Amino acid sequence: MQPLPVKMPLPCDFSLVAYYPMLIFLVIVIGLATVIMILAHIFNPRRITPVKQMPYESGMDPIGDARGKFDVRFYLVAILFLVFDVELLFLYPWAVATQGENPVIVGALRTIIFWEMLVFVGTLLLAWAVAWRKGVFQWR
Amino acid sequence: MIPPSDYPGLSQHLLVGAVLFCLGLVGFLARRNMILAFLNAELMVQGVALNFVAFSRYRGNLEGQSFVLFLLTVAACEAAIAMALILVLYKNRGTLDVSVWQELREDSLDAVEDTDPLPLPAAQAPMPPLPTAGLGPQQPEELSRV
Amino acid sequence: MDSARILDSCYLALPELGMLAAGCLFFLLGTMIENRRFWAVATVIVLGLALVFQIAEANDPETSGNWLLHGAATFFRFLGPVLGLIGTALLAPTGSGQARRGPEDFACLLVACAGVGLTGMAPDLVVLFLGLELVSIPVYLLLFLGKHDRQGQEAAIKYFLLSVLSSALFLFGASYVYGMTGSTRLEGLGGIHENLRWSETAPGEIPAARTLALLFLLAGVGFKITAAPFHFYAPDVYQGTSPAVAGLISTLPKAAGLAALLRLIGAGESALAPFGGVEWSLLWILAVATMTLGNLLALWQNNLHRLLAYSGIAQGGYMLAAVSTGGQAGIGAMAFYLAAYSLMTLGVFAVLAYLNDPDCPVKRVDDLAGLFRTRPIAALCLGVCFVGLIGLPLTSGFYGKLLILKTSIASSSSQGNSLFLVLAFFIVFNAAISAWYYLGVLTRVFLRLPLGPQAKPISPLPLCAAVACSIATLAGGIVPGLIEPYLRPVEKATAQSVAVDATVVVTANGFAGAIEQAPE
């Protein structure tokens, strides 16, 4: 296998103009969020209940010791998150190698590797289905 | 074979990797808390990952970096198993100290007496229940005021 | 790297990939179908298909080449499913205590068997590492699922923490190998010396980094093989778990570790010696230390599982001895002995799994007293397997030891190195020591009267596995020609040296048998 050229961009190569799609993206995101919030504020019905008025902190008691103990049920979520989070690591090199400026993966290889990635994502999906069937997502 | 590129920082990176590895090894051997022992083993793996990345830069190919991807994934799988296993063990004995687990040993050996057990966590007063908005939490009233 | 090569690789690894996929599916579908009998049958079908495919592939000269199918690789790919089939029979009984449901342990077994095959044919350090982990991770789960009491949990955490440590050690060595060769390909290992530019060493001098990497790699695989300084966890772990899982732990990781060792030192690839020859001396020391320590410590054991753990350590020493002779013949002898050892040990554990009754546990050697009177078939299987582990004639253990002795004596004359004669002496000496404790068990089984209430077996399946293992052990000893030609290197041994070595082994064992009988 030929070695891939490892080239680090020099600082002077940087140009903010190259990132104009990001600016457009940012404008659209902020605009959409603002519009939705305004619409919700105009149209939603307001029924105030004590539970709704409670300060909210991700399902935990908002007042307490910062080093307090977590509910053991969070462990299951943490385990699942840990695995799925890291598995996504494999998608990045693939994305760079197929979609980058000068893609390394070309031709028939591209199709095969695409299906390989689908198989990989399918494996993740299978793991998720196992967790679902095992009742991991139920808050018992 | 690929000629090594000009990469003067290699020995420094290797040194850091080796230091991380050794710190992890010492920690693994010295720690009695199961979670910390496992984290130290992970520290060793991270030292190795640094080695791989440094060598990958030095050799000018990406094989080392792709090894690191697999290494991190396997480390995550092991962390997930560690979490599950340690949780079950903690439920059983109520402590994370590995030294309480010494049922399996040679017949002729006695159980090691723990002269310096890990301190048990102090019992904490229960926190006040969640109030509705606008109201302060119900604190127990103090008996005397100065 | 092109598309055809990727597809070829996938096709070549099809049995392993199939076993992995089946394992994943078992986890999912096991949440819907909980009938364990169904899952046992499904496991047997998957493993059987994998075996059939591998037989077809091994006979096809077209496909060999890409994934290094030659020699030991094909052997390990066969060994995985065969051990898996026996393991299925051991795991299948649910146990009368808490009735286990679902196929999780079968799925783990499938993944571990695939891991052994992948390690055996790994063309790359990454695949090698993943193969080793594919054996380790299911074994953690098996240990955890096997027994839910405190002892089982202690065994699981001990094995887990030390296994994580061992893979970290292995990886540290692997990172330096990559640094020295500039490639993770295993064929690139031969170029370690030429590529050692970053450490400025004089030509001909052994660079410290190379030896360092070798030490770390050996430590990593030594944990899996339970070689001497890294063996200490084995007795505790075996003691804490159920007989079925102990049988699997004594075989699958050991096979994977030996496969990884062969891959790393390039054995079987015409004397590659990537680490400059240091590896043979280190393996020699490891082998002698492992077999001697294992056998000596086994003499003091009362607990059956601990005894078998030390026996497994010692037997691993014989295999390391075969590898340390450094030739194709040594690899063949190691492969034969590994297969023989795995079947004999699984046979013993199968009998223990058969007798595994929570009301009347068989833990100590004395609990087996009078087994021949109460359960003659189980006792006979135990007898055959233990006789094989001693290395008495008419068993595969005898023939395997003979092969190892033959190669060590042959390499001492061919390499002019008398250390290999010392190695042969150590093997014979250790076989003599081991006869003491093995015969100690056998006397209790055959000559004593039953002591207390006897275990009531739950299922006859483990007994079937034990009978199969015993038949295989006898077949390997009486007609070794069935397997041995497949493991034979290019050179052929002369009939005369076989005869001489046979006398040595028989005399040593007869002598040991006499000593054993004296104090009784």
Describe this structure in words.
The complex is a heterotrimer of chains A (140), B (146) and C (520). By secondary structure, chain A is mostly helical. Chain A has a domain at 67-140. Chain A is 56% helix and 0% strand. Chain A is built from five helices and no strands. Chain A is extended. The relative contact order of chain A is 0.05. The mean pLDDT of chain A is 79. Chain B has helices at 10-30, 34-59, 63-93. Chain C contains 19 helices and no strands. In chain C, helix 7 (150-181) packs antiparallel against helix 8 (208-225), helix 11 runs parallel beside helix 17 (419-447) and helix 16 (396-415) packs across helix 19 (495-517). The longest helix of chain C is centred in the first third of the chain and has 32 residues, at 150-181. Chain C is globular and about 65 Å long. The model of chain C is unreliable at 62-69 and 490-520 (pLDDT under 50). Classes of the chains: A mainly alpha (140), B mainly alpha (146), C mainly alpha (520).
Let me know the average pLDDT of chain C: 83
Secondary structure class of chain A reads: mainly alpha
Spell out the helices and strands of chain A N to C.
HHHHH
E-strand count of chain A: 0
Q: What share of residues are in beta strands of chain A?
A: under 5%
Largest interface: B-C, 52 and 50 residues
What is the global morphology of chain C?
Answer: globular
β-strand percent of chain C reads under 5%
Domain module tally of chain C? 2
N-to-C series of helices and strands of chain C:
HHHHHHHHHHHHHHHHHHH
Morphology of chain A: extended
Proportion of helical residues of chain A: 55-70%
Ends distance of chain C: 67 Å
Quaternary state of this entry equals heterotrimer
Number of helices of chain C: 19
Tell me about the biggest sheet of chain C?
none
Give the uncertain stretches of chain A in residue-range form.
none
What is the rounded distance between the termini of chain A? Answer: 52 Å
User: What would the average pLDDT of chain A be, to the nearest integer?
Assistant: 79
Number of strands of chain C: 0
